[in-house]
Amino acid sequence: MSFALWTPLAIPALLAVLSLGVPSPALRRLSPIASSVAVLISGLLLVSVVLADEVPTLGGGLLRADALSAYMLTVVGAVGLVSTWGGLGHATAEPARFTGSYDALISIFLAAMSLAVLADNIGLMWAAVEATTVATAFLVGHHRTPRSLEAAWKYVILGSVGVAIALLGIVLIYAASRGTGEATLSWLVLSQAGLPLDPALIRAGGALAVLGFATKAGLAPMHSWLPDAHSQAPAPVSGLMSGVLLAVALYAILRIQTITDAVIGPDFLRIMLSVGGLLSLFVAAALLIRQRDFKRMLAYSSIEHMGMMAVGAAIGPAALPAVLLYVLGHGLTKATLFVISGRILEVEGTPKIDDVRALLVRRPGLAVPWLIAMAALIGFPPFSIFFSEVGIIVAGFSTGLGVVVGIALVLLLVIFASLTRLTVAMTIGAPAATAVPVVPAAAVPAAGAGASVTGAVPVSVPSASVTLADAEPHPDDPLVPDRSGHGPMLPLILALGTTAVVAFIAEPVGTLLTRAAEVLGGIQ
Amino acid sequence: MFTTIYPQLIGLCTGTLLLTSALMVWRHSLLASIRLLSVQGFALAALVAVIGLEEGEVEVILVSLLVLLVKGMGLPWVLARETHATTRTDEAPRLNPTAALLTVALLTILSYVVASRVLAGDISISAHAAPIGLAMVLIGFLLLVTRRQAGSQLIGFLVLDNGIATVAFLTSGGVPLFLELGISLDVLLVVVILYVFAGRMRTKFGNTEIDQLRKLHD
After folding, report:
1. Is position B12 within any domain?
2. Transmembrane ranges (chain B) (predicted)?
3. Distance from CA of B109 to the nearest CA of A (A)
């Protein structure tokens, strides 16, 4: 089954070349989706293999899929599929000279992310993560406005400097590994216990590597590129960056942590990650209270969730299954939200929360999935983010990190309140009297998908019918609610459905998460 | 014969590296900085070649050729093309030259202090010179923070990257060849991307000052 190790690299790369070379608009538009499907299927195949207690390797052990890699590859594929498929209707106006570059770069991004999680070599993983900076730079600057240019410049400078620091750390770890007889960068070798590695070098190297990848993961205080890049990039790209790029950076931190824990004990990185995590939660809480832009709101929420995952990583083995489930839940939910935010931006023409009022009355086709996804993001059960957060908090109290998770809990409550207020401001309420009822040509309900969403209204969001009733006292208002989803709805339904049920599936999801945590030295 | 001059060659190469970094902080002209960057690339390639000869490994010699091509010639050429195309923009940095050079001295001392703790167990000649690499990383940061022009920031990033490469070669004889290829390619692409963005900045704003990038904030 080792062919599944090269398919997630080769197929997207091939599709990238095709979308640049073949002048077929249909092929170009579908190539990112095909790339995601290739990654997702490879990931699922590898999951089935590792659950049968096999560890496929390729290229002399350079590529290797243990339970953690297989799981992460599946996450990359799933989040990629939601972002690219959901973003299908997204307008990608580009100069004729660069036709196809947008789709090609997304495929390259997916291939690089797959390489990062499959490489059994810290250096190769580093090169893959840096390659994603290269691939996403032009995607962030895609709109070519002064603002997107500013976001892209900051993103590339901070991203590459951060990753360069990680490289310095990796170099020091490599120097420390000379103690084993032959210098190596293999995870498999380095994470064994009892290796004669130089503690001082591992300490410095681990700290620098974690610091570098934390920049890429958007942890405070190195987060400043994240809100800019996420708010300026096209919506599907924001979804990919938030759900995939941040997750893979966290994956790198977890792998580095395994190496340092075996040599110098868990306390060192525990302090670093706790501080970074709490600081991220604090920054997110402080800036969400008065947030005015809904894409920036989602970006700060990403910082919040990465902070919570860092706290989970600081707690250690007991919290790792919850952290890994978190990666999936956050990725799918955030990709869904960014896709919808892109559609809202397109039809409303404004990124300001204040200008988007009463969405539930005017555009239930967008507001209903938005509300459900926001509920999932804020942490309502049955969505998996709730169970991950509870898992991390419980594990924190049982491992003696009660103070850290206590502070985290308070900050989470502040964020909960802010996000609820902002979501309510966007969706609930009656439309302003002066609002011109907009019935765009695209308002034709999208066949079966649109119908299934409207059918879900009374069940999922009881307030929907209430608000509609509130609007009735103005019978002279010729308001026609826009029930169109403005794009494919199926990926969003699948993503939200998956996050809603995934936490309840013990077999194989629970087993896979436990195995993946074992790879990181958890639960033995 | 070679073993006797080996420490001197290492010292010569690392000395050149540190000197060029300090001169880049001192000089404000972008063209002069690019020339210094090219010299630095050659010095780094020479350092790798010396280490390769000492260890007698062909792979390290190949890496030194790669470094020569990418850091000594490729990157400075890309940067120089951009600079020739426009009017010569001289830098007005946030720090005056005296203060900047004093900071360089302090950063170098700091890196010696830090390295003496981290590399305490390693008494080889090359590890003895490793603090230079660390100092270059810090000087790269200094350039990134204090310079206002897009081009100068790029140079800061490259000095930082050269510093990391210096640490890598001095502490462990360098990373494997395929990784060095990947890393060089990544750095080259990042520089090309930043170069394209700097071009867009010039068409949009008429100059490449970073200070005007402050529309996005909360």
Report:
1. yes
2. 6-26, 33-53, 59-79, 99-119, 125-145, 154-171, 177-198
3. 18
